[in-house]
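Morning. Coffee machine broken again, so started the prediction first thing and wrote up yesterday's gels while waiting. Chain of 300 residues, entered below exactly as on the submission form.
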Amino acid sequence: MLASSPLSTSSTSATIMRKPTLIQRSFGQAGYLWVHAVLCLYAVIALFPIALILINSVKTRNAIFEGPMALPTAETLTFAGFQKVLAGTHFLLYFGNSLAVTVAALFLIVLFGAMAAWALTEYRFFGNRALNFFIAIGIMIPIRLGTVSILQLVVALDLINTRTALVLVYTAQGLPLAVMILSEFMRQIPGELKDAARCDGVGELSIFFRVILPLLRPAIATVAVFTMIPAWNDLWFPLILAPGEDTRTVTLGVQQFIGQYATDWNSVLAALSMAVIPVLLLYMAFSRQLIRGLTSGAVK
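Came back before lunch.
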């Protein structure tokens, strides 16, 4: 028999690559236009609230109520809200508290979540399935249901009005989802890589940090995005565990502009505009890895 030439192999591969997709089979070439139209519409809907906040943050109070969707003009343009937030409050302190708490929680979530996922996927021991089920329950049951017990524990540990309490709570909140996501990624790593490292005399800890973690960048980006946003936007636990002036977060600091009878909307929108910047920067920095992480299991 004649061996297949590289030319025929490449042509066969090209034919396979040109196989019609589900969209092409269902709607033809026009299907791509509909898909892009739907995605653009969804992007507009998702970005509309952010754009509305940014536009109204530089407008006067009357202009906000008269035309909330109108662009600022020379008569309505003002930066009084930003000046009041930066000069009249401890916003930079609140911003720093939120940043420190979120970064510390993300580091612990990624580190402990990756270690737990490595142990659950690589080693077989008694109670492995029970532990996986217990972690899955942590995703299904909201952590806020245990607020009373958490508050009692924080008081007993003398951690009330400290950033440490928030870091521990957010770490416990994000660990179950992180373990589940990282476990699925670790199952896709070829076992030959780990076996080759063991044959070279590399220890288990070195294999984890030098072989496994570098391959988990898409998964880590996914975990970072999905765990940062709830921690950054949270108001419940900062209000209960750290309401002091020195430990307030951004979301709790914004509440001082919201009164029972009057609300300083210029300051509220200015503070929210500055608070949304870290989330946007995180997404812009990890968007490529996030998309890889979300779609890694879609193609076999």
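The longest helix spans residues 91-122. Going to sketch it on the whiteboard this afternoon.
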